Amino acid sequence: MENMFSWLLCFFILCGVLCLLGYQLICLADLETDYINHYDTAPRINVVILPEFISQGVLCLLYALSGQWFILLMSIPYLCYNIRSYMRNRYLIDVTEIYNNIGREKTRRLFKLYYLISLMLLSIGW
């Protein structure tokens, strides 16, 4: 019973991380099509980046505590990337540089999204 509870908890946290990434991508797409300006977009994205990092760390901790070693090994590169970008202070979006980096930011978040979707499918199938 505790395995099912831990799997469900991990699954819902992973769904939350996917929603946070989806929100960031929607904000970037709205900026690209000029629905909102860059002064509104950057704070909206910067607010959800740190909860994304924290929930990914909690997710990895739950994978380790519940003994899901393969899924943990698959999610460690994403966690290491988040830690590295946090330590280098490159995780926040700058208001003045957002138009120059919009392609790179969208690509980065799409890669994260695809990685987490594959992790979710692996978690469901495992």
TrEMBL record:
Q: Name the membrane topology term.
A: Multi-pass membrane protein
- What are the protein's UniProt keywords? Membrane, Signal, Transmembrane, Transmembrane helix
Tell me where it mainly resides: membrane
Output the PANTHER family linked to this UniProt entry: CORNICHON-RELATED
Question: Which GO annotations describe the biological process of this protein?
Answer: vesicle-mediated transport
Q: Name one GO cellular component term.
A: membrane
Q: Which family does it belong to?
A: Belongs to the cornichon family.
**Does the keyword section mention Metal-binding?**
no
**Signal sequence range:** 1-19
| One Pfam family, short name | Cornichon
Species of origin reads Punica granatum
Q: Where in the cell is it found?
A: Membrane
Source domain of life is Eukaryota
> Know the name of this protein?
Protein cornichon homolog 4-like
- InterPro entries in the record, alphabetically? Cornichon
The transmembrane residues are: 53-81
